[in-house]
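hi support,

uploading two proteins for the ticket. first:
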Amino acid sequence: MNIKDRLSYTNRIISLLGKGEAVVLTGHRRAGKSCILECLADKLKGSGNVMYLDMENPDNRDVDTDEKLNIWIKEHASDNNRNIVLIDEVQEIRDFEKTLRYWVKQSGFDVVVTGSNAKMLSSDVASAFSGRYMQVHVFSLDYGEFLDFNGITSSAEALAMYLKWGGLPFLSNIPADDTRTRNNYLDNIYNTIFVKDIINRIPVRNPVFVDNLARFIAENCGKLFSANSIAKFMKNSTSSVSSNTVDNYTDALCATYLIDRVHRYDIRGKRIFEQQDKFYFEDIGLRNYLCLSKSNIDIEKVLENAVYLRLRKDGFEVFVGQINGKEIDFVALRGDEKVYVQVSLNVSNPDTYEREFGNLRQIRDNYPKYVITMDPMATLVNDNGIKVLLADNFLLHGI
């Protein structure tokens, strides 16, 4: 199977090498981290002694502690060359950071690792690395990568396919009309995340509730919730749990990078609210899979999720905006940049138009404001400098 080089990632990683810090690739399972690491190994062959350790390879099962990792590095290191240590799924090695902390500090050593569980980047591990790491978060394929992997050009049909199946790279090897195999693959990925990254790593007394919670969030992604409101709803529909338990289980789902928690941002007060968040999936195909039992997967929410992912991929920190009791879908910050974004399938209905454009008009500063839509007629609108972007163009090129 040919592996496509996702240049936006490999080029960025190469630019971070040689700075005396480990580079850590994070992201949910099967987002493409391993393939990126393989492409990186291939590109770096002429740059030094590349040491590649795949922890999903049964032959490496014995390298399961920091002491054994240290021995492995010593055995494979070169005394006369630059050493580049690449480790896939490093969280499978107990206390890996104790050994890597040492080797990162050694002259002529670069370390790049991947991991699927956010627990590996907890404050304890950050302290163990003494701050000597840089994180590169790997997302599922964006729309442009999706087109490339599937060998197609942008069209209404291609966009619909992307919004239905998401961006797990391996899906490009399964025929688009083989719905059964595609759903089986998504099922396997979800169950791997659920069992291996949650149940086996985090004390969970009620795994059925966690599964129901994931499906509840999928069906309601993009809606504001507090732990207390989720606990009340789940109590009425399944079983009784406390809001603290909901918070802990939601954190566990976020820790696998299955979902992201997005906080609310007070646009006037420029502060972050601590209650009521939104949740979005890091792969919309997995989100849709968890909604299979529902007749309506709410395409507008799927589009909103896709816009969120594009903003994140482009390096923005994303919040849900609040101003004068109105909601702005996204406030996106990147360095000194700030943009405001509304997402709507179409704006032909007067009430919808006023909600999307009117909410943006409430904001009195001069930062760019956008409405992203699938309604081509909306591009004719000229309303107080608010820019209209068609969804396919935004998902391809960003802002």
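and the second one:
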Amino acid sequence: MSTTTPSSEAPNLFKPLIDVGLFAVALGVIYLIVGPIGGVILFASTAFAAEPRIVYAIEFFYIFLTGLLSLLVLMAFIFRRLPDLRDTVLVPTASIYFALLGTAITIIFIGESPVEALNIMIRGAFGSAYGWGYTLFYTTNFIFTGLAVAVAFHARMFNIGGEGQAALGGLGVAIVALSIDWPHWSLALLGCTIAAALFGAAWAAIPAYLQAKRGSHIVITTIMFNFIAAALLVYLLVNVFRVEGSMAPETARFPENTRLPNASQFAGFLGFGSSTPLNVTFFVAIASCVGVWLLIWRTKLGYEIRAFGHSESAAIYAGISPIKITMIAMLISGGLSGMMAINAVQGEAERLVIDSVQGAGFVGIAVALMGRSHPVGVFLAALLFGALYQGGAELQFEMPAISRDMILVIQALVILFTGALDNMVRMPMEKLFLALRPRTE
């Protein structure tokens, strides 16, 4: 008969809340110390420095110091409390920090204040209901395309065809919205969502078939299909769907019953105005995050997709068909990309125009990379890029010296550090964590 010795300490059910609270307190202490010091330094530098670039250099040092201290606190917190979050939280946060430093240096070189520029971007993205409306509108687009890339990633495929799949999804939305007399917007939303997903999946099916049956590289075929989709859409909008007597390459405006409620109608109490593009598609995007999580981690099909992505030979040995997984994963990926059109075409433009995607398919690649192909990470990364898009627009408006091209440079820096230079941050972090971990005898 065996006996067990109960632990002397009962499990602390509030440990996660305590951990987060301690982290928040540590950050608060840092900002209480650094904030006044930084304010004094910036005031003194502005008052006594004759050369603006000296002031900007001091501002950069202030940004560098504050961010570095915050990052060190986060590292200590994760190392001591939640080491499993090293890959999903610490590495992306460090990448964003280095991207912000690169952005600050770029802004200094064009002769502007990095602190003021960052304040404008944050205020423009989150400082008002107007800013939130546009930020969440862009976020919705990036959630769909980010999830699309993430699903393909799990099957070890790189779907770069989000642009074309979203464009064809818009074609499906336009056909369904203009061809059927919908009695209510909710039914129109359901019908347009199905059509967008089917058209996007159909456009992804051809590269998927070429990959599965012919061995064609999925990157080459999907990126080429972006150009084919763009040419096809131009032809259709000019020769088939263009309104008679109009020179604009766009469809007729959708009927009233197909127009989706925007944020002023369901969240007007939060200050959203009628001009906000944020609409109910945002909730469809949230539901898609939940659906992808259930699919990938709670279904047999999701297990097969992940198993195939980790090792094709092992998956084949286990009886998983590579042709089946390649086709299904790409169909799901294309369908998610196509669903972006219900936000941009049905929700915002209320008609199909030439460039309704506006690069969201390519941004989805960075979103999936930064979000580690997990729906929660994709949502947070999409929110970051939505803020960059909206904050960048405000920055261009309030700082004329910063052109649209400079905004693209800032966005590219974030993509560079969170995607292409991911290992530059990850590998030193891994070595540091291995060196600091307690040694057992």
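thanks. also noticed: Residues 1-13 have pLDDT under 50 and may be disordered.
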